[in-house]
Design goal:
Layout (H helix, E strand, L loop, with lengths): L1 E7 L2 H8 L2 H8 L3 E7 L12 E2 L9 E2 L1 H17 L9 E11 L2 H7 L4 E6 L7 H6 L3 E4 L9 H12 L32 E2 L2 E2 L9 H19 L1 H6 L4 H16 L1
Helix pairs in contact: 1-6, 7-9
Length: 255
């Protein structure tokens, strides 16, 4: 079982976001335990203070290191008592804009762990000593500003839990997801066959599984090259992929 500890000022946000769908069912099946840790419980003063003014001046408040260190130490101790795999150290993840960009490859890596501790930042940031001396990973979900780390944490939890064995009823569907092989997913269609004059591509109605697989791969290549050239530049292309790209180029010339 994977243990995920979330250190946050707003545990109700995480609770609401993990109660349903795949994550909720995975919790019911005992595949994952998500434990919510209120950071203020580890403050040392009567006001439960977890932030202070930054040294050197500046706007806003910075989250103090002491409560975070104490909360992480608590998570490590209680996870050991809950029989998290002792020989594997916990991944202590700080959600912060300076972090490594989160990817599907990193989600797969985290899904192999037995214990994750996610630290939700807030205010103007977290004391740098948390990143330098406590966190094993610093992760960002993108180049934009959010109020806190709760939404990125929910994204990480969702993307990791769905990769756990038994979390999804049809494991083969994971191989069809966007980014599973470095490319965007192919277009999907369902009934009706025609809607407002727009028809489903005939190949999908042919029953020819080989032709369907070829069309889907070709669409993955086309969409990734068109919409995400950054992904396309890093993608590993097979000999068949190169042939499909030649076909796409010839079709574009004919048009």
């Amino acid at each position: 079982m994977l243990i995920i500890d979330v250190i946050t000022l707003f545990p109700e946000v995480i609770e609401a976001g993990t109660r349903y769908s795949i994550v909720g069912r995975a919790m019911e099946r005992g595949l994952v335990a998500i434990r919510l840790v209120q950071l203020r419980d580890f403050a040392t003063d009567k006001h439960r203070t977890v932030d202070d003014e930054p040294y050197g001046g500046g706007a806003g408040l910075v989250m103090k290191p002491e409560p975070i260190f104490r909360a992480v130490e608590y998570c490590l101790q209680t996870a050991s008592a809950a029989e998290a795999t002792p020989e594997r150290a916990a991944r202590i993840i700080l959600l912060e804009p300076q972090g490594k960009l989160y990817t599907q490859a990193l989600a797969r890596e985290l899904a192999q762990e037995s214990h994750l501790i996610l630290i939700c930042g807030h205010y103007e940031g977290v004391d740098a000593r948390v990143r330098e001396h406590l966190a094993t990973d610093t992760i960002s979900i993108g180049d934009f500003v959010l109020t806190g780390g709760e939404l990125p944490t929910l994204i990480i939890i969702d993307s990791v839990v769905r990769l756990l064995p038994g979390a999804i009823h049809s494991p083969e569907s994971l191989q069809q997801d966007s980014f599973s092989d470095g490319l965007l997913g192919y277009p999907q269609y369902t009934r009706p066959e025609e809607f407002r004059g727009w028809r489903v591509p005939p190949v999908l109605l042919s029953g020819n599984h080989g032709a369907i697989a070829r069309w889907r791969r070709r669409e993955q290549l086309r969409l990734t090259r068109m919409l995400r050239p950054d992904l396309f530049a890093r993608a590993y292309l097979t000999k068949q992929d190169v042939e499909l790209l030649k076909e796409l180029s010839e079709d574009e010339v004919q048009r």
